[in-house]
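This section describes the prediction task in plain terms. A model, or a person checking by hand, is given the sequence of a single protein chain and must write out its three-dimensional structure as a string of tokens. No templates, partner chains or ligands are provided. The sample shown here is typical of the held-out split.
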Amino acid sequence: MSRISVRGFAVASATAVTTVGAVVGVAAGGTPAADDNNFEAAAADTTLLADIPAGQQAQVQTASLTQQADAQASAADAAAKKSAEESARLQAAKEAKSKKQAAEDRIEAEREAEAKKKEESERASRSSVRDASSFSAQGSYSVAEVQAMARQMVPADQFQCFSNIVNHESTWNYRATNPSSGAYGLMQALPGHKMSSAGADWQTNPATQIKWGLSYMDGRYGSPCGAWSFWQANNWY
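The expected answer:
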């Protein structure tokens, strides 16, 4: 085919044909001209579609479209990869948050279960103790008998602390008297007659003294073990 030299058609052809390399009016890696004169000059030096033999024009166009399609496919693949990576990151963050929340919920549930178990144990311990009035009065009591009464009146988890204090104060002698201060009984109440709030027989009945001592420790220190902790630090309670 002969070269078409009409200038306007050359410019139109250079504008219309989009190919790469030798076919495109802009060399590979180059940039389009900024004005019409430059563009027209570039078009004059460009191999136009009309300059290519008719049998090869379809091949050139097909190659151009293939390259464009490849470029678009690569861009689409990159976008899809980026999107997949972002989705994976968000999913991983979501799963990590869920696992953290599940762990926190499990710990909280275990704490609540432990607190409930402890409360039930304390309730059962309190319900199993005997009141001072449930013991028959005797003329005298041995240390073993007084200790047995205390075991039945003091909650099991507090008994050792209660026993430690009584050991130090009176060695389980319910008639123990401090000649200098006047402190009296198992807990060495000062003055002794304050134990009358637990019963009129406070001088002769160890159960009454135990009742008073337990009430005193609970009221002032929260429990016999609270009283024992104070005693250890101060040697009195």
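For orientation: The mean pLDDT is 79.
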